[in-house]
Amino acid sequence: VSARTLAQVGELGFLRRLLPRLPRGRDILIPAGDDCALVRMGSRRLLLTTDALVANVHFRPGWMRPDQLGRKAYLVNASDVAAMGGRPRFALVSAGVPPGYPSRDLDRLHRGLMAAARETGALLVGGNLVRAEVLFVSLTLAADSPPRPLQRGGARPGDLLFVTGRLGEAALGLRLLLRDPRAGGAAVRRFREPIPRLKAGALLATERIASAAIDVSDGLLQDLRHLCRASNVGARVELASLPCPARVRRAGADGYTLALTGGEDYELLYAVPPRHLDRLRRLRPSMGCPTTRIGEVMPKTHGVRVVDARGASVALPAGGFDHFAGWRR
Amino acid sequence: VSARTLAQVGELGFLRRLLPRLPRGRDILIPAGDDCALVRMGSRRLLLTTDALVANVHFRPGWMRPDQLGRKAYLVNASDVAAMGGRPRFALVSAGVPPGYPSRDLDRLHRGLMAAARETGALLVGGNLVRAEVLFVSLTLAADSPPRPLQRGGARPGDLLFVTGRLGEAALGLRLLLRDPRAGGAAVRRFREPIPRLKAGALLATERIASAAIDVSDGLLQDLRHLCRASNVGARVELASLPCPARVRRAGADGYTLALTGGEDYELLYAVPPRHLDRLRRLRPSMGCPTTRIGEVMPKTHGVRVVDARGASVALPAGGFDHFAGWRR
Q1: How far apart are the first and last CA of chain A?
Q2: How confident is the model at residue B256 (pLDDT cuts 50, 70, 90)?
Q3: Cα-atom radius of gyration of chain A, to the nearest Å?
Q4: Looking at beta carbons, which residues of chain B come within 8 Å of A102?
Q5: Cβ neighbour number for residue A41 with a 10 Å cutoff
Q6: A93 near B94, Cβ under 8 Å?
Q7: What does the DSSP 8-state code read for residue B4?
Q8: Whole-angstrom Cα distance, residue A124 to residue B290?
Q9: Is the CB of A103 inside 8 Å of chain B's CB atoms?
Q10: Residue B90: closest CA among chain A residues belongs to which residue?
């Protein structure tokens, strides 16, 4: 592995080697590798997460207004908090900005970020501003944890798999923007502005509905594999049940590529034990978003498979999003 | 102000406009604008701070080994915690890395970061890795707060001004590296590896010795001006008393430029009311570093002045470090 570059090893390849070497300690209740870390400070339990948006990797100039960029930098972090069932409290932003960037735009970026934080009950409490050749916005979020936060591990064979909202729409938006930076419409709006499922996540955790959860940021298949690996299980996903708008199906080569591997959905994928289905049904109207059954948790030996309407296994598109592989077109 | 660039407005100019607009709330005990924010989560008080190192701004390739870069990314944040008297607990790293960066070097960077965290009692609990055209390492630190954290505001006329350690050495190191990337020696070591004054900061806070404090990261004069503005006071600094090694004095055009405006010292500048001097004298041996009296807090009308051995005002070198102005040579 010695002299290989990040492009060769990949983001996941590198993290898989790094994570087991991260420190353990009695004050780390859930270590790095889940959507957030859960730590103990005195009697208090705290969720911590960080994520960054980088120009020419996550967006190109002209795709988003500065306020939209600030909003998105916040919302993608809030989605990680939603996946554990937490409540965002305090945000810190670390921005790298080219010297020629208009001061007015940086102002708008911060306003967008602060507005998005406020809408989810959080406050921007600090930040840092440095010169950088390429614009980046890195955000860290501290959040309240529910008594039993959702984790990637915990799904058991027989649990049913659900996903909130719709899949593939943001990926379609990205595709449209790559073709025409002035593109508009629902898909582009969704790419620009993720919707963190905070209410759904909080209910799934506090009402003890879900046995495991993850936010779908790198494509359903890849994040499902993360959940399965952490839970030591397999999964069967029914293609026909994926909540995927017709315009997204029409855009994918085989109808479901964007829903399976698109990335940036920021929906919640979660597993529900059959005995909790009644509770889910009862609380569904309070989740603030649609939620759809898409499959079932299987024993590990089954692997992760996607089946069509006749139950036949579907050949899976390769991987999901890896920052070091760049944009799929 | 409308269409000006960051380079024209400057880091401080921008932050001065932004800070008053940051949200307030009863859970924000000390808002952004100090070295850390102090927030309340339940019964717990928490210090939060973030800072980033960016290639070609804070360092050039070849100046530091990857493990040294990871260490420094951690230590500059720990210095902000030291300035409030806090104890670092949990770190999150957000790294942007070019695709061609060796995986082995990123590994070393994380090892250096984790080692530095461990040495100060903190744990790396999470992170994020993205592709970026230019290497950056952004770090966020959550820390325990002392009952009465040190702040920039609080100095009163008549208080005495002290600084820990030595000034200007890191700036000399930077100058040597700009001339020759293979330069070595104590000054270069100091540039590569700041020493956060955690023990000193904790003592100054818990023993209620200091009335105000700040970490000297952008040059003594600039950070003194921050402290004076927050405390609504002026200050007189005695040039001859600055703890400035002979090799640093020889390097500066007028002997003290590097000590006054050099930047990256990561020492603590603090004010001590005369009635606390006995306590300071008693606890000095426990601070883990030298500490030197450099002047006195004055009424606001006096302004911030530096005087020579005969008491005459010295013409001050312009400003301190501003990321958007670039390196001074």
Answers
A1: 29
A2: confident
A3: 19
A4: 3-6
A5: 18
A6: no
A7: -
A8: 36
A9: yes
A10: A39
Confidence of residue A328 (pLDDT cuts 50, 70, 90): very low
Q: Choose among B128, B326, B277, B194: nearest CA to A32.
A: B128
178-237 of A, contacting B, C-beta below 8 A? none
In percent, the amount of chain A with pLDDT more than 70 equals 95
User: What gap in Å lies between CA A117 and CA A73, rounded to an integer?
Assistant: 10
Contact B92 A9 (CB under 8 A): no
pLDDT band at A75 (very low <50, low <70, confident <90, very high): very high
Gap between the Cα atoms of B321 and B137, Å rounded: 20
pTM of the model: 0.94
Residue A329's pLDDT is 32
Rounded Cα distance between A73 and A125, Å, is 15
Q: Is B8 on the interface with A (CB under 8 A)?
A: yes
- In the chain, the amino acid numbered B244 is C
Q: Do B44 and A48 make contact, defined as CB atoms within 8 angstroms? A: no
**Calpha distance A288→A286 (Å, rounded):** 6
Coil, strand or helix at A261: helix
Between CA B191 and CA B4 the distance in angstroms is 32
CA angle A4, A222, A34 (to 5 degrees): 85
- pLDDT of B325: 54
Helix ranges (DSSP H) in A151-310: 169-179, 186-192, 198-206, 220-231, 246-251, 257-261, 277-283
Contact A132 B134 (CB under 8 A): yes
Cross-chain Cβ contact A41/B102 below 8 Å: no
pLDDT value at residue A253:
66
Average pLDDT over residues A105-111: 96
pLDDT in tens, A255-266: 788 899 888 999
Percent of chain A with pLDDT over 90: 78
* Per-residue CA distances from B310 to B119, B257, B292, B302, B316 (Å): 44, 19, 19, 18, 16
Measure the CA–CA gap between A6 and A18, rounded to whole angstroms.
Answer: 13
Chain B residues with CB under 8 Å of A114 CB are 21-23
ipTM above 0.95, yes or no: no
